[in-house]
Amino acid sequence: MIGLVVRRLFQLVLLLLGISFLVFMSMFIAPGDPATIIGGPTASNSDLEAIRVDLGLDRPVLVQYFDYLGGILQGDFGYSYQTGQSVTEAILTRFPNTIKLASASMVVAIIIGIIAGMIAAIKQNSWIDISSTTFSLAGVSIPNFWLGTMLILIFAVNLQWLPVGGLNSSIFTFQGVVELILPAITLGTASAALIARMSRSAMLEVIKSDYIRTAKAKGVKRWSLIWIHALRNAMIPVVTVIGINFGALLGGTIITEQVFAINGIGRLMIDAIAARDFPVVQGTVLLVAAIFVIVNLIVDIIYALIDPRITYN
């Protein structure tokens, strides 16, 4: 297990180097000039040149990239072209909202997905199974922006049961939990559908296994057979889907944050891309990539905890 962690951390470093290079170069290839955006329409050519010199944009691209890497090694991700704020500070200010949203969405997805998938497998070919399959198809097909807008219209505008948007309260308060309900359902629906489909397939495969038939012949109670003997073995592929989806949720909160006016990493990234704010874009992309790799490492560790037969030698 220690060897696995060391290998993955080494891969993480290489991956982040590659991503940083691609993002850095793509920002320079994209049309637009940060100096023009910062200077505004009234800036003269001399003003624009002075801005480029001040930001270091007059130097060769590779020189700028290696200077950027040197700053990262010292914990310095640069400063925002727009606000002058440290990129690290900007990310730390916004990231808690994204973590809250992604975590709450994953909780919704896991609860709905696993329960729906397990019940559908137990009641195969029944109306419950058909309903679960229909829900899975609808959940994957419905766009987040449409679902979020409909939820706001129904529960926030018409019924006035829930707030329209924003995460302004602590998650440990009642108001903080209430603020998370609509965005968490919006973001977690697609993941819940995928988890439900995977849970159903895995459970159907497990309950047809020889050891399940043997346990049933020995008179093991049905609830014990399903929730103790079958569930643990069925969870391995489900954990894979959960891990991948959680990493995707952290990077895919952009639309949901826009719909619900949540000041998270997604909105920060969109604003930075529109303003050609290179340091902020690079910092947010590197953060999301690092978290995605770390989440997958955690998933591999959970594999071994669920099934001791799995080794990583």
TrEMBL record:
<feature type="transmembrane region" description="Helical">
    <location>
        <begin position="285"/>
        <end position="306"/>
    </location>
</feature>
<feature type="transmembrane region" description="Helical">
    <location>
        <begin position="101"/>
        <end position="122"/>
    </location>
</feature>
<keyword id="KW-0472">Membrane</keyword>
<dbReference type="InterPro" id="IPR045621">
    <property type="entry name" value="BPD_transp_1_N"/>
</dbReference>
<feature type="transmembrane region" description="Helical">
    <location>
        <begin position="12"/>
        <end position="30"/>
    </location>
</feature>
<feature type="transmembrane region" description="Helical">
    <location>
        <begin position="134"/>
        <end position="157"/>
    </location>
</feature>
<keyword id="KW-1003">Cell membrane</keyword>
<feature type="domain" description="ABC transmembrane type-1">
    <location>
        <begin position="95"/>
        <end position="303"/>
    </location>
</feature>
<keyword id="KW-0812">Transmembrane</keyword>
<keyword id="KW-0813">Transport</keyword>
<protein>
    <submittedName>
        <fullName>Peptide/nickel transport system permease protein</fullName>
    </submittedName>
</protein>
<dbReference type="Pfam" id="PF00528">
    <property type="entry name" value="BPD_transp_1"/>
</dbReference>
<comment type="similarity">
    <text>Belongs to the binding-protein-dependent transport system permease family.</text>
</comment>
<dbReference type="Pfam" id="PF19300">
    <property type="entry name" value="BPD_transp_1_N"/>
</dbReference>
<dbReference type="GO" id="GO:0055085">
    <property type="term" value="P:transmembrane transport"/>
</dbReference>
<dbReference type="InterPro" id="IPR035906">
    <property type="entry name" value="MetI-like_sf"/>
</dbReference>
<keyword id="KW-1133">Transmembrane helix</keyword>
<dbReference type="GO" id="GO:0005886">
    <property type="term" value="C:plasma membrane"/>
</dbReference>
<feature type="transmembrane region" description="Helical">
    <location>
        <begin position="234"/>
        <end position="255"/>
    </location>
</feature>
<dbReference type="InterPro" id="IPR000515">
    <property type="entry name" value="MetI-like"/>
</dbReference>
<feature type="transmembrane region" description="Helical">
    <location>
        <begin position="177"/>
        <end position="196"/>
    </location>
</feature>
